[in-house]
Design a protein that fits this description.
The protein is mainly α and 234 residues long. It has a domain of 151 residues. The protein is 83% helix and 0% strand. Helix 2 runs parallel beside helix 5. The longest helix has 42 residues. The chain starts with a helix and ends in a 7-residue tail after the last helix. The N terminus is likely disordered.
């Protein structure tokens, strides 16, 4: 009888961990999409030979920071205005990524490379909260499963972002779809900040609608900016 119970206990343990791995994989696939779009935006102006390298460097740096984020997640939740600060950083990055700059072509490759890597790390860290919390929850407190989930993010981010960067080169409007994702995430972070208390002021309906309105505005701007080469930020 004890052998039978032990057998079922082992199968239960295996199923518990297997289901956790499946959940983590799905979470990574779903929640890494917007992060891959950000990386694609950051590396789109790099030579193709440097794009995958920049994506890898940025993703690895971001994952290392995510590990720290996961370890200190409970503490970070107590810091006031952390979500709003992340949202403000993302708004600035969104503006920088869609800003048309005629001097961009004169920046040396190495400077552009490291600038892209830093942009990836900062943007990913600002957006990583949902991914980290999702992975940590699915891992049921198992640190090895958390590490697995974070490591799984790397190939998804690198392969997904380089593919998106190529598409952005052919279809400039995709740049603004990526920027719209960033805008939605950034503005949502302001409403999610409990210390800021914006949701109490606007109500839940507007707290949901405003990020969508802001992202739609970015899309309309994108349609206008891509219609004529001279349009857009200078």
């Amino acid at each position: 009888m004890n052998n039978i119970l032990q057998h079922f206990s082992e199968w239960g343990w295996l199923w518990h961990n297997f289901s956790a791995v499946i959940c983590i994989s799905v979470i990574d696939l779903v929640l890494s999409g917007d992060n891959a779009a950000v990386i694609g935006l950051a590396i789109r102006n790099l030579p193709r030979t440097m794009q995958r390298k920049a994506a890898l460097f940025g993703a690895v740096g971001a994952i290392l920071l995510r590990v720290s984020f996961t370890i200190f997640a409970v503490y970070l939740l107590t810091i006031k205005y952390l979500s709003a600060t992340g949202g403000a950083i993302l708004l600035w990055i969104t503006y920088k990524l869609i800003k048309s700059n005629g001097q961009e072509a004169h920046i040396q490759g190495a400077n552009k490379f490291w600038r892209a890597v830093v942009t990836i790390v900062i943007a990913d860290l600002s957006m990583a909260f949902d991914n980290v919390m999702g992975v940590a929850g699915a891992a049921h407190g198992n640190p090895w499963l958390v590490i697995f989930g974070l490591l799984l993010s790397i190939p998804i981010l690198v392969l997904g972002s380089t593919w998106l960067a190529k598409l952005m080169g052919r279809h400039p409007m995709l740049i603004y779809f990526g920027a719209a994702i960033l805008m939605h995430t950034a503005t949502s972070m302001f409403f999610h900040d409990q210390a800021l208390g914006l949701e109490q002021v606007t109500g839940k309906t507007l707290a949901v609608l405003i990020p969508w309105i802001c992202s739609i505005f970015v899309l309309f701007y994108g349609f206008w900016a891509t219609k004529e080469p001279g349009n857009g930020f200078k």
